[in-house]
Amino acid sequence: MQKAIANGSISLHVNMKGFSGSFTEMAKRGLSREMLPHATEEEMGWIARAVANGRRSWDSIHFYGDNGDKVTVPEPDWASFPRLRDLPC
């Protein structure tokens, strides 16, 4: 999954059903070293790292809400995140 996230030529489709918070909250939990993140939170952290480091554009990611309809998720303010190191792949 991390390789697909790092590959900006692949469109990502993110089902937000069951998200406990916004994309930004999920990604920050996924990047945190204070608690072990759940898999989905960790994947949102990978997406944040890929976009912030120029591996993919925000518009290459498509988000879907609880009912399956496409939703608009504004691009986060990457400066509000802790240091976003690049993905290893």
Give your account of this protein's structure.
This protein has 89 residues and is of the alpha+beta class. It contains 3 helices and 3 strands, in the order αβααββ. The termini are close together. It has a 3-stranded mixed beta sheet, with no helix packed on it. It has helices at 2-6, 23-31, 39-52, and strands at residues 12-15, 61-64, 70-71. Helix 2 packs across helix 3 (39-52). The longest helix is centred in the middle third of the chain and has 14 residues, at 39-52.
Key terms:
alpha+beta; 3 helices; 3 strands
Brief write-up:
Helices cover 31% and strands 11% of the residues. It is of the alpha+beta class and 89 residues long.
How many helical stretches? 3
**Low-confidence segments:** none
Give me the secondary-structure category.
alpha+beta
| Cα shape | globular
Distance between the termini: 11 Å
Could you give the order of strands across the largest sheet?
1-2-3
Fraction in helix: 25-40%
